[in-house]
Structures are given as C-alpha cells and as structure tokens.
Amino acid sequence: MKKLIKGGTIVTAADIYKGDILIEDERITAIGAQLQSSDAEVIDAEGLYVFPGGIDPHTHLDMPFGGTTTKDDFETGTIAAAFGGTTTVIDFCLTSKGAPLSDAVQTWHAKSKDRAVIDYSFHLMISETNDEVLAELPEIIEKEGITSLKVFMAYKNVFQADDGTLYRTLLSAKKHGALVMVHAENGDVIDYLITEALAEGNTDPIYHARTRPPELEGEATGRAAKLAALADSQLYVVHVTCEQAVRQIAEARSKGFRVYGETCPQYLVLDESYLEKPDFEGAKYVWSPPLRKPENQDVLWNALKSGELQTVGSDQCSFDFKGQKELGRGDFSKIPNGGPTIEDRFTILYSEGVRKGRLSLNQFVDVIATQSAKLFGLFPRKGTIAVGSDADLVLFDPNAERTISVANHHLAVDYSAFEGMKVTGEPVSVLSRGQFVIRDKQFVGKAGSGQYLRRNRFAASEPPAPESRTISASR
Ligand code: URP
Ligand code: ZN
Ligand code: ZN
Ligand code: ZN
C-alpha cells in the first residue's frame, strides 16, 4: 500500500523545504515537488511540518526500582510516546550480577514483545566486568545489535559500578564498537550525605536535591570523561542537569575526545523549588540527578544550541504518586526515582525551544531525533527524512495550543510532571514504518507492531573508510 504525503513543510537536521513524500510499504521511496501516484492514498499535510519521528534514547519501561516497578510499560509507554511524536525508543536493559547478560536481554525481549506500538531497542547495563561478562559481551553486541552499554556511577549498593568496571567497559566498547553511557554522579559521597541528612531528621523530598549537589555530578562527569580519554574510547553522559557537568563535557570535546551529552525536558523547564511542594507533592519531582537551580536551564539550552550537548532523552521512568512515590514518606531516600516525560519531550522541545527562539527548527530535529540515530547506530534508517529511510514521520501542527495535564495524557501513571504547562505545537498524525500509529490525534496503532531494532556499531565521530562503512541499520 502506498501513501503520498502532500504539501507539508519537510524539516530535517539540515533542511527545510516544501515537498511531497511517497511511501511504499515501510519506506520512503520518493521525495519531490508535486509528486503524483495513481494508486497511493493521499494525505494532506498543507500547513503542517513533517518531521522525522522522534528518537528517545533514554527510557525505563516496565523497570523494577526501589521495591516497585514503573507504572508504564512497553504498551502504555510507547502509546504515549507515539502521541507525543516519538517513533523509536531505546530502553535500558537491567542486568543482575552473576547472571548471564543474555538472561537480562531475554527478560527485556519478553517485556516488550507483542506490546510496543513503535520500534524499540535496548542499551545493556554493565555492573561487573569479570571474565564471563567480557566473554559474553561481543556476542551480545553482534547477535542482539546492542551497541551501547550503561554504567551507573551512583545508586550505591543497587546499580553502582566502580571505576575499574567503567574503565574495562570503555576498553571493551572501543574494541567492539560500542558506546558507553554513564549515569554520572558520585554515588559514594551521595551515600554519605544521605545517611547524614536522615540522621539529622531531614526526611523531606527537598533533601533528595540537597544530598546530590551539582558538584558531585560535575566530578563524576569529569572522571568518566578522563577515563574515556585514557581508554581512547567513547562516552555518552545521560541526563546532564547542570553547568558543572556541561563544562566537563565541553572541555573533553574541545580536546577532541569522543564525549557526548544528553539532557532531558525536566531539567530544561523545571527547577529544584518543585521538590518543596507541600503535602509530600515534591516527591513527584524526584529524579536523579535532581532538578537544579533555575540558572542551569539557560546553560543547558545554550549547550544544546552550541552542540556541547547532542541529544534530549526523556528518562521516562514513571511511578504513581499514590502507592509508589509514597513509599518514601518519612524517608526521601526511599522515593522511587523518576517521572513521566516520554509523551511531552518532543512538544516541550518544540514549544520552549523553537517557539522561544532557543533552537532553530533544524537544531530541534537534530536533538530530538538525528543525533540519537547517529550515536546509537540507527542512521540513516531512522532519524531523518530521506529516500530509503523508514517512513517514521510526524505531521505536526505548529500553532496548536494546549495545556499539559494528567487529564489528557496517555500514560498510565497518576500525575503529569508538567501539569498546567501551556505548549504550542502538537503532533496531528504519526507514522511508524509507513503505518499510522496516531491519525488525526487518535490512536490507531496496534500493540506488538513495534519491531526490535538491531543497531549498527558506534561510528558516529569519524566515519570509517568508505569500504568498511555500513550505511543502514541491519533489518
Ligand atoms: O531518576 C531517574 N533518573 N530515574 C531513572 C533511573 C536513572 O537513573 O536514569
Ligand atoms: Zn533477541
Ligand atoms: Zn540515571
Ligand atoms: Zn534513566
């Protein structure tokens, strides 16, 4: 079945132009002015932007954490993502010490199979680098196409790995063409500060922020960047929140090291004061790293604009206020960390970024889709609008106005992190590999229609010689 999207304004990370897009089956087969096709369904995109589908490089769907499990899973989470203009998510596959990596990957396949409504892939957590793990890793990278590895430098006694583990992971990633991702906070010092705060009777949500100061994010970011440089490897710092961390990434990049950074919508538009909301409502805003003082927001926007930070991930990780966040009443350290962000990432970046003049349209597409496709081995199959690319497209009304609210979102969780925020711009229709998932703001997709994506190896910084270059993700 063919589709012809007519009259839209096509926006990629490089171009803006009016044109028509012909889709045959799953892919874009022609782009041009006044395209004709006798047997295609014509979709009118006059007055709309046509963006590549958003790529969310950072989600936690159906993830156990702090004695509970995220409210949103691969079905509700990807439906909400699609409503918000995202057509690919890369979720974090958690591993357990002492168990084969492949067990964890199979667990994540079981969580997502027959549930996701858009395409998805996995990053793999590494918490130890013993002989078994190092032996298994190349096979996982090859067979599963999992070309990004995650190391936590925080969450002591839960996920945290030591520096030796990070360093060996960086070495292995260099050898096998993977990108190492870090949650960069100094977990040992945070652990001490939490113990001290609780001993002094400081149990409210605001102490989550006070025990995780930005210096400890900057310190860990700098340490990870230096280890990446020493290993001559590549590093991606997830959820960057503050000036101290941005500075470390910028410094490493200015020296030519392959260090990349991601921020998230919550750090761009919310601040630490939300943690002080009365009646324990501050718990809704507990993320790690925490929300920061407002002056960090300009630093993050400027870093996205200048290219010091490359991507925006949602860090979707939702827990109900009732029954889940409440586990931390009387002890902020027991509040499950994370919030619902997958649906609003795309529109917040457009509304607060493009409409407010902080990002150009091309920069918006770059940070919301293209850079993630390049860094995580999906480009040019995903992340752009080109002949041969998957027809993952967002038809976007740039003038629609609405108010974000739990009353109209599509997640299962019982609150919105951005309640009451007025935004301009909204996805009208969203296609995943040529099929409508959202049509005229209605969900028309199907659980299980999302495909697992095997990704190419890391090659974003310097393209290898032409003969060895792979130009599309394996299908
Ligand atoms: O608070 C957060 N960010 N929760 C999700 C887990 C993580 O650290 O990314
Ligand atoms: Zn598999
Ligand atoms: Zn994290
Ligand atoms: Zn996360």
Automatic annotation (TrEMBL):
SUPFAM superfamilies: Composite domain of metallo-dependent hydrolases, Metallo-dependent hydrolases. Its cofactor is Zn(2+). Keywords: Hydrolase, Metal-binding. Residues 49-437 form the Amidohydrolase-related domain. Gene3D superfamilies: Metal-dependent hydrolases (3.20.20.140), Urease, subunit C, domain 1 (2.30.40.10). The keyword Hydrolase applies. Signal peptide: none annotated. NCBIfam families: D-hydantoinase. This is Phenylhydantoinase. It comes from Cohnella kolymensis.
